């Protein structure tokens, strides 16, 4: 299936091959750690804790845009060893960066240009910080290195689940909480929140957390547990890599069975129509089911729409799924898509973006039919987790727009109209800055009452933290634009998107915040580098008082900036030099 858009662009060459296509999981996966030569380790890391094994490791972020080779790394076997490692780093002038799945875009862990031999120690949480146990009849205690798939599987075994979660199951819990990870979901009309659930980020389910922080009395870093009713805990709930959390206790609720129906037949003009329009609008599906995601491939007209609904019993047309990842055509790049990407990246054939968009759409539309995955039903985990590391690696910008539920269609419509107009204008002059998709999700905010803990505070730095001066804002629209790394004019195009969002949703009927783990602060030439966005826009959107409070707490809990890098120093207005 194709759309009329492709007729305006060059036809594909039938001799395409897969050469040059390197954007697979194998090509971008982190290099396994190499055991350290004891003599070299002793020379470069003197007095390092003897019971913690050291190894050399490369760092690769999700898309391979940020890389660093030959860094020292370790995998403590428990929280006490983490304390030993952090104290060693403090005494020797090193910085510690917690690493989970490295499934992120922004330089919150490691910055590009970090040299081999830099005093940066990666602390891998996934090998050992993986404990899971019920803490009470309504809470689970989890190590921060546990993956989301393992966590949700454990919950399912005990009859628990979550309302929404990020799609990749490989993410570690610690990584998700550090950046207020989320899924998609708001209450359908007439739906009530179940006890132990939240429509906000997973950070909003935390009851307590244990982190390695500075203790002035002992003059060292120690393990300390923080509860949800304290200001320090509020700052650590979404800490952006400025701390190291080893364990959390999460509020949980009864699992639900979800039905997930996919559609590829609704035109973008209808789905993203102006508010008040009749037809199958985005807002109408929110009203009907509450859990919606739209994936709109570049230069196509029919998005891939997923709609989840609570369904205690299996609908007659649904296929029961007993495990997650039920879209193999998405998780394993189809040959036509791979061949196109290979030609675009190896031959600079970026003009093929419209053909690639239609190939991706075809793969989804045909794949849903071929794999009988257009109507799925099962325990929540099996439809909430649907993205494997083998999917196509793309750069993603990311923003959330806080608004009222009644304004969601307006936000979506105005964004879609601007995106379409600018993409068309770029194409008219022979530029194709986007070759991936637009992804749109909707969540609730981080209402601290969902934690059902007396005096609970919202996460200070969460993009979903409510605004006291706008109580009518109860909903967040998440907007991402995806494109292959290295695409010409992508930074300039995404800067235009960012500037549009900031001026259109400026705090009147809606407010734009950045999505911490994705791309933002664009200049015409790059990302995470616009001084105005870093220094003024981001703190203002969080809230000046809240930003200052969080900064002061994080500085007090880590006065030596052991947890940091050059990007975080700049974001939090520190003049010290870091790796």
Low-confidence stretches: 1-32, 574-579
Mean of residue pLDDT values:
92
How much of the sequence lies in strands comes to 15-25%
How many separate helices? Answer: 17
End-to-end distance: 49 Å
Q: Tell me, what's the shape?
A: globular
Q: Can you describe this structure?
A:
The protein is of the alpha+beta class and 579 residues long. Helices cover 29% and strands 21% of the residues. It is built from 17 helices and 22 strands. The strands form 4 sheets. Strands 13, 14, 15, 16, 17, 18, 19, 20, 21 and 22 form a 10-stranded mixed sheet that branches. A 5-stranded mixed sheet has the order 1-2-3-5-4, with helices on one face. It has a 5-stranded antiparallel sheet with strand order 6-7-11-9-10. A hairpin with a 2-residue loop joins strand 6 (132-136) and strand 7 (139-143). Helix 15 packs across helix 16 (544-557). The chain is globular, with a radius of gyration of 23 Å. The model is unreliable at 1-32 and 574-579 (pLDDT under 50).
What is the secondary structure topology, with strand pairs?
Blueprint: H1 25-28, E1 34-35, H2 38-44, E2 54-60, E3 67-74, H3 79-92, E4 95-99, E5 120-124, E6 132-136, E7 139-143, H4 148-157, E8 160-161, H5 173-178, E9 206-215, E10 220-227, H6 231-236, E11 245-251, E12 253-254, E13 257-263, H7 268-271, H8 282-289, E14 291-297, E15 304-310, E16 319-320, H9 328-331, H10 335-347, H11 353-370, E17 375-379, H12 380-384, E18 395-396, E19 399-403, H13 408-428, E20 437-444, E21 475-483, H14 490-504, E22 510-514, H15 531-542, H16 544-557, H17 566-571
Parallel strand pairs: 3-5, 4-5, 16-17
Antiparallel strand pairs: 1-2, 2-3, 6-7, 7-11, 8-12, 9-10, 9-11, 13-15, 13-17, 14-15, 14-20, 18-21, 19-21, 19-22, 20-21
Helix pairs in contact: 10-11, 13-14, 15-16
